[in-house]
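Why do we care about 3D structure at all? Because function follows from shape, and shape follows, mostly, from sequence. That is the central idea of this module. The next example makes it concrete: a single protein chain, its amino acid sequence, and then its structure expressed as tokens.
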Amino acid sequence: GAGKTTLLRVLAGLLRADRRLDLPLSSKLVKSTGTVPAVAVTDPFCETHPANEERLRALMSAGVEVLQAANLNDLLANLATRGISSLMVEGGAHVARSFLSAGLVDRLVLAQSELVVGADGIESPATPSDIPAGFQCVRQERFGADRSFEYERGL
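And the structure:
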């Protein structure tokens, strides 16, 4: 119904070059599947690779659902059949860029900090200076030295 939130973690392995489902069985994501469901996504041909059969069985035994999707549109169509019409994509730059490039993003929130994580920092799929065409800034906030920018498509 209205206002209902479905919490489901979708681990979009189909966007990775190796598609090996290498999510550690000891990870918090796997260990907490009894509380918050997790779906690992891979391509339709994953099962045909002998090395992946054991990984698939291990993840499923640990409570992770394995979903096969040929592409992002296939993934979103499958999630829609479950009543999921909104998805928060929280991942690395590659995952975020994939959704942006496919035109599947309606709202973009960027967090910016002066703190540098790692030797070269963490790559961002976009910055306030190179937001994709069609997005407009609808909100900017400051949290101490950190900033948040919110953009929406086609206002």
